[in-house]
Amino acid sequence: MSTPPQVAVIIVNYNTKVETSASVRSLLDATSVPLEVVVVDNGSVDGSAEALREAFPSIEVVEAGENLGFAAGVNLGVARSSAPWVLLLNPDTIVLEKAVDNLFAFAVEHPQHGIYGGRTLRPDGSTDPSSCWGAMTLWSLTSFALGLSTVFKRSTLFDPESLGHWNRDTLREVPIITGCLLLTSRDDWNALGGMDEHFFLYGEDAEFSDRARKAGMRPVVVPGATIIHAVGGSTASSGRKMSMVMAGKATVLRTAWGRPAATVGIRLLQLGALVRAVPALARRRSDSTWAVVWRSRRQWRDGYPAAKERLFGLPVSHDQQHSTDDRNTRSAEGARP
């Protein structure tokens, strides 16, 4: 009689057939804990769903039929799984030996943390800090707006969201665990309500971690859970990606902060983009990352779901927009003395 799966691994795929296949293979080869693997295909046109089913008959491939984004894709995958633990995993990752085993063992032994992440490395073996971050504050945003977080990169004072020069190689509680590698129990996932589907891409994990902390959880990085995370891209694509990141940040501010503070925070984000864009624009490098971000500020500064249409050209449903208006009103009311 086979052992029932203990961890449901949820991977959201969008036209990344080769990368997702390599990730699933590494996951299965490097893990001893019984797994339930669910890949949600967000309307890919590269034959991902068929290729993954053929290569891995034991996994479930859920075809969403459209690009749902990350948050809704993850929620769909979790709903289609049943294991008592849930692990979010990026499709562009390679799981190293016993990474999931170590993360799961720590979580079972230390349930008080609620949310668990690991260490990510770049393909060259250097630390990729994106497995976790510090939370946005008015000070961190002011440092960004003045360019201090760039001049003093990874400074604990002037770049606090980076968490300094810590290489994610020691056990540490952190404000934000990213969806690249995030483990939680199904009970805690359900108690938190899953990912906020107002988000489309980027920022949803920060908001999820914020809710977890408010619920008394203590997100933690477990260094023995190590994966390789592919990063990179052209200048043009990096500008587009950073615009998506900024849309996520703006949505976090509008969701988790009161309206006056969120308004200030978003203005600081825009100022920071301008400060970084000016040198490139002066050199007529209009395709540089921050020049692209500055020019597209009207597309990202209102956050999601509006940015879903403006950045991705995807329609926003009436229900999404109405729900967002209600959310922003509640946020503003909550900020009143």
From TrEMBL:
Residues 9-132 form the Glycosyltransferase 2-like domain. It comes from Herbiconiux daphne. This is Glycosyltransferase family 2 protein. InterPro entries: Galactosyl_T_C, Glyco_trans_2-like, Nucleotide-diphossugar_trans. Residues 319-337 have a biased composition (Basic and acidic residues). Keywords: Transferase. Residues 313-337 are annotated as: Disordered. Pfam families: Glyco_transf_7C (PF02709), Glycos_transf_2 (PF00535). It comes from the Bacteria. Residues 176-224 form the Galactosyltransferase C-terminal domain. PANTHER family: RHAMNOSYLTRANSFERASE WBBL.
